[in-house]
Amino acid sequence: MALFSVPTPVTTILLDIEGTTTPITFVKDVLFPYIKENIKKYLLEHWQEKECQEDITQLQKQAEKDSHIDGFVPIPSAISDNETENMIQAVVDNVYWQMSLDRKTTALKQLQGHMWRSAYITGQLKGEVYEDVVPSIRQWRELGFKLYIYSSGSVEAQKLLFGYSIEGNLLKLLDGHFDTTVGHKVESKSYRNIADSIRCSPENILFLTDVVKEAFAAEKAGLHVAVVMRPGNDALTDEDKSSYCCITSFHQINFPSENN
């Protein structure tokens, strides 16, 4: 595959995570299974802590909202210490149920985020990145480019992944993070919001993603885009490949300043 030459106006690179910097399988085969395998142990160990109790309260409130959904799992309030074990099991069952439906409720993401934080800090988890990522972003920084992350995962989850990566702490290489609080990734307005937030013109930003719908939204907002084709990512159609610049590695990205 040929080199992708970045347009001269670009000063900033915006990166997706899943399928772009990090294998999709890391989330599906590592992060999510970790929650399922360790949630009961985590709740037993942290039950008395304020943060854990706040997580439970949010899950209870979400369960009340979900009572109309077929198969929903309620979370009762513990009236006595004797009922704590039943309540913990109810939380476990509720989390399993939400995850089986691939729900992304704030309450679920909050508990998952706290569990992952604990696992990263204790070394049970390390964030995965493709082997071309770190050498490339180091080079881009040296060339003077600003680097930002935009992912559907929370900013906290992003910082954990890059802060405790297999390549060490990569946060110092990044200028900032965005999640869906800035808008959904398939909406053009989200990319304009990011451009406004970093005080940058859309035409000065290159967005790298593996999702064509995101590339379309970003391009519509005035950003430059390239679609990343990694093993395990959704296959692109011939139309997709003809509509967008496609790369299989960050090493294929060529900047004008490299030729000076």
UniProtKB/TrEMBL annotation:
GO cellular-component term (any)? cytoplasm
Q: Which domain of life is it from?
A: Eukaryota
Q: Which prosthetic group or cofactor does it need?
A: Mg(2+)
Identify the residues that bind substrate.
S151, S152, K185
Q: Which UniProt keywords apply?
A: Amino-acid biosynthesis, Cytoplasm, Hydrolase, Magnesium, Metal-binding, Methionine biosynthesis, Nucleus
Among CDD domains, the record links this protein to: HAD_EP (cd01629)
Localisation per UniProt entry: Cytoplasm; Nucleus
Q: Which family does the UniProt entry place this protein in?
A: Belongs to the HAD-like hydrolase superfamily. MasA/MtnC family.
In terms of PANTHER family, this protein maps to: ENOLASE-PHOSPHATASE E1
Oligomeric form and interacting partners? Monomer.
What is the protein name for this chain? Enolase-phosphatase E1
